[in-house]
Amino acid sequence: MAGSTRYLRYILLAFAALVVIFFISSSSSSVDDGVKSATGLLKSKGSLWKGSSTGSLQGSQGQSKDAVLESNLNASESAFEQNSSPNPKYGQVTRPSTQAPGERVNATFVTLARNGDVWEISRSIRQVEDRFNRNYNYDWVFLNDDEFDDTFKKVTSALTSGRARYGKIGPEHWGFPDFIDQDKAARVREEMHEKKIIYGDSISYRHMCRYESGFFFRHPLMMEYEYYWRVEPSIELFCDVGYDPFRYMKDNNKMYSFVLSLYEYVETIPTLWDSVKGFMEQHPEHISENNSMDWLSDDGGKTYNHCHFWSNFEIGNLEWLRSQAYIDYFTHLDKAGGFFYERWGDAPVHSIAAALMLKKDQIHFFNDIAYYHVPFTHCPTGEQKRLDLKCHCNPKDNFDWNGYSCLNRWYELHNLPKPDGYEAEQ
Ligand SMILES: Nc1nc2c(ncn2[C@@H]2O[C@H](COP(=O)(O)OP(=O)(O)OP(=O)(O)O)[C@@H](O)[C@H]2O)c(=O)[nH]1
Ligand SMILES: [Mg+2]
Question: Counting atoms of ligand 1 from 1, which one is nearest the CA of 144?
Answer without folding.
Answer: 1
